[in-house]
């Protein structure tokens, strides 16, 4: 059983784990003996915490059908007990092995500062990534509170890792440098306006996800499946590890 619970902020990682698990089981000749179930708080497959993209639900359903994977969507999880996943609607789903993406939660050290964090422990920020209460404090990535254009009835987070965090960090770094020089922060970028750029690995397959905005409304958004996405993900991982090991931090 593989899935992502309510409040999870990176559903793409759950999909990657799901399809890579299926692929590795097939390579080992065990896929027919291991039923796979994907359980998610997403209201539909391919929501990804960003409201979905055109054709995304249909594409993910085709992927799951091809791999023989059952899906349970739009559910909250009550408890992960040994051998049993308890859902908030009263259902119990048995499992022999499970990987569940947990919710992002704020840190107590941040939550304990009066006026800094919201009730969940995340820092409300301006589009400069300065704290709304403390302009000399910055928060990006998983530390920042992000508003979404859907109701609380859809308990999904938004991806705050990878490319979005890099964009936020560049904005914050430029503004910190400006403040050190005695200038006003001039770099701005709302989270929802950050482009969506993601390569989702899926065993020997994959999906390239592109959109002009992270959150709707958007002018365009596409999901392009194919083995080229898997190859691109492998190449990027090797490149990223290489530049990190050698300290080439100025490379893109």
UniProtKB/TrEMBL annotation:
InterPro entries: FAD/NAD-bd_sf (IPR036188), SQRD (IPR052541). This is Sulfide:quinone oxidoreductase.
């Amino acid at each position: 059983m593989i899935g992502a619970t309510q409040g999870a902020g990176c559903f793409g990682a759950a999909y990657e784990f799901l399809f890579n698990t299926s692929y590795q089981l097939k390579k080992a000749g065990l896929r027919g003996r291991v039923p796979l179930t994907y359980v998610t708080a997403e209201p539909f497959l391919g929501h990804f915490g960003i409201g979905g993209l055109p054709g995304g639900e249909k594409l993910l359903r085709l992927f799951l059908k091809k791999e023989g994977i059952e899906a349970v969507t739009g559910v909250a999880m009550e408890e992960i007990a040994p051998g049993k996943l308890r859902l908030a609607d009263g259902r119990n789903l048995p499992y022999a092995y499970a990987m569940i993406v947990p919710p992002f939660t704020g840190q107590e050290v941040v939550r304990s500062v009066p006026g800094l964090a919201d009730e969940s422990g995340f820092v409300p920020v301006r589009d400069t990534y300065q704290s709304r209460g403390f302009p000399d404090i910055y928060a990006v990535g998983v530390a920042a509170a992000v508003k979404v254009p859907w109701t609380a009835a859809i308990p999904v987070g938004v991806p705050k890792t990878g490319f979005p965090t890099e964009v936020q960090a560049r904005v914050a770094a430029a503004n910190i440098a400006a403040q050190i020089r005695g200038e006003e922060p001039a770099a701005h970028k709302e989270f929802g306006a950050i482009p969506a750029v993601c390569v989702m690995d899926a065993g020997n397959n994959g999906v390239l996800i592109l959109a002009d905005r992270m959150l709707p409304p958007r002018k365009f958004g596409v999901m392009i499946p194919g083995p080229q996405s898997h190859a691109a993900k492998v190449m990027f991982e090797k490149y990223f590890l290489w530049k990190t090991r050698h300290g080439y931090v100025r490379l893109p």
